[in-house]
Amino acid sequence: MSIEVGSVVEGVVTGITNFGAFIELPEGKNGLVHISEVADVYVKDVHDFLTEKDKVKVKVLTIDEKGKIALSIKQLQEKKPEEHVGKPHAAAASDSSARPLRPRAPRDFRKPNRFNNSNASFEDKLSRFLKDSDERLTDLRRKTDSKRGGRGSRRSD
User: Fold this and answer.
1) Three-state DSSP class for 89?
2) Are 37 and 72 in contact (CB under 8 A)?
3) Which residue ranges have biased composition labelled Basic and acidic residues (predicted)?
4) What average pLDDT score do residues 44-69 get?
5) Do residues 128 and 114 make contact, with C-beta atoms less than 8 angstroms apart?
6) Fewer Cβ in 10 A, N or C end of the chain?
7) Average pLDDT for 59-78
8) Would you say residue 156 lies in a domain?
9) Same-domain check for residues 74 and 90
10) 155: helix, strand or coil
11) Beta-carbon neighbour count of residue 69 at 10 Å?
12) 48 lies in the same domain as 88
């Protein structure tokens, strides 16, 4: 099967960059799925949708004179108007060897929420919140007072 514009082929993800994913196609050719063509939803990080060695179905968008092949996964996905915005759609292909795209768990490296301890009572959570809030306000005042010239930094003539 030759690779032509508009054809649907199956390939393997060989590399992921911040701008898309490289796909190895049949006949030893390689193509690129740009980040904007990965899913119907906003894609901040391609790693949230694809990993290396994933089998995916792609549509060939263009083949330029240098032989570069532009691919799309998004154009093969079903459009379901009743789904909520923000959820990716299942892949249109029913072939089980190419898995449908689903975002992976978000990479949130922030500290866990200290106030959402389900074992603590409401009063304990409120007490912790007030203490933390007071500490933050004190730090903020200390930093801003020194910039404004407050607390003893005034000159007496």
Assistant:
1) coil
2) yes
3) 77-86
4) 90
5) yes
6) C
7) 89
8) no
9) yes
10) coil
11) 21
12) yes
Taking phi first (over 0 means left), then psi (-120 to 50 degrees means alpha), and beta for anything else, what does residue 36 get?
Answer: alpha
Tokens of residue 50, six digits: 């694809």
Query: What pLDDT band is residue 79 in, cutting at 50, 70 and 90?
Result: low
Domain that holds residue 31: 1-106
- Tokens 């759609």, located at residue: 89
Q: Quick check: 103 and 64 in contact, CB under 8 A?
A: no
CB-based burial label for 9 (10 Å; 0-12, 13-18, 19+): buried
Looking at the fold, whether 80 and 11 belong to one and the same domain comes out as yes
Q: Which of 46, 41, 30 is nearest to 74 (CA)?
A: 41
Long-range contacts for 121-130 (Cβ within 8 Å, ≥24 apart)? Answer: none
Q: Give me 79's structure tokens.
A: 């459009």
Q: Which two tokens stand for residue 123?
A: 């009063």
Residues 56, 76: contact at Cβ < 8 Å? no
% pLDDT > 70, the chain: 66
* DSSP letter assigned to residue 3: -
